[in-house]
Specification:
Length: 226
């Protein structure tokens, strides 16, 4: 069973990123303002002239008709392109679909209840599946994939916005005081060969300590790719 979009995705070419939320994209010769669901950077890629895949919204009240779902890191003339999914918001939708269809039984099984956006302490965690909290993350600050020679890159600074991650992993660890299982699930929307810390955040040491404490307490840190 596969997750399918309501409509086939459309191909376009990114002309420029206007701000955190919108891009100008050429689609079938016309220029459209497109919603960008990822407010941060996408690896170290300069998005100008990059090919992309777009979903078509059915909501007539939306200001932008299309949403950016993926970018290509391949030469335009390649038949089988390498696509990188960048819609971090959609990761939760995908995991919800897989959970409802019991397609993640190696990770969690024997459940009948799935809750979304469940409050725990001072956080809202993505899922409560029976008595297991699951927090979903989609890392895009550093892409673990090789680009073809047409992809231009730009210099980036180390990531520093880690407070939300630290809060969530600490809340997950606290749930083990009354639950047996808690999962931090890293979702890669591309064929990721493996996850390595190449360009550590400015708070790397502090975050590493929080992660190690959480693992010792029993948190499972897993990765999946779709």
């Amino acid at each position: 069973m596969k997750y399918l979009f309501e409509k086939p995705l459309k191909e376009g070419i990114i002309l420029k990123r206007n701000n955190q939320f919108t891009l100008d994209v050429k689609i079938n010769g016309a220029i459209e303002k497109v919603h960008c669901p990822t407010t941060g950077r996408i690896g170290n890629i300069d998005l100008k002239n990059v090919e992309c895949l777009l979903s078509d919204s059915t909501n007539p009240k939306r200001k932008t008709k299309y949403t950016l779902e993926a970018i290509s890191v391949s030469n335009p003339n390649k038949i089988n392109k390498k696509w990188v999914g960048i819609n971090q918001i959609a990761s939760n939708k995908y995991i919800d679909f897989f959970l409802k269809n019991h397609l993640l039984n190696e990770m969690i099984n024997d459940y009948s209840e799935i809750k979304r956006e469940v409050k725990l302490g001072n956080s809202k965690l993505d899922f409560l599946v029976e008595n297991t909290y699951i927090e979903v993350k989609t890392p895009l600050q550093r892409l673990q994939i090789e680009y073809d020679d047409n992809i231009k890159t730009k210099k980036t600074t180390p990531f520093s916005s880690t407070e939300r991650f630290k809060k969530h992993i600490n809340e997950l660890a606290s749930s083990l005081d009354f639950n047996k299982k808690a999962i931090l699930l890293n979702v890669f929307q591309y064929d990721n060969p493996g996850y390595k810390i190449i360009n550590p955040s400015t708070n790397y040491k502090e975050i590493k300590e929080s992660v190690e404490k959480s693992i010792k307490k029993g948190i499972e840190i897993l990765a999946s790719k779709y």
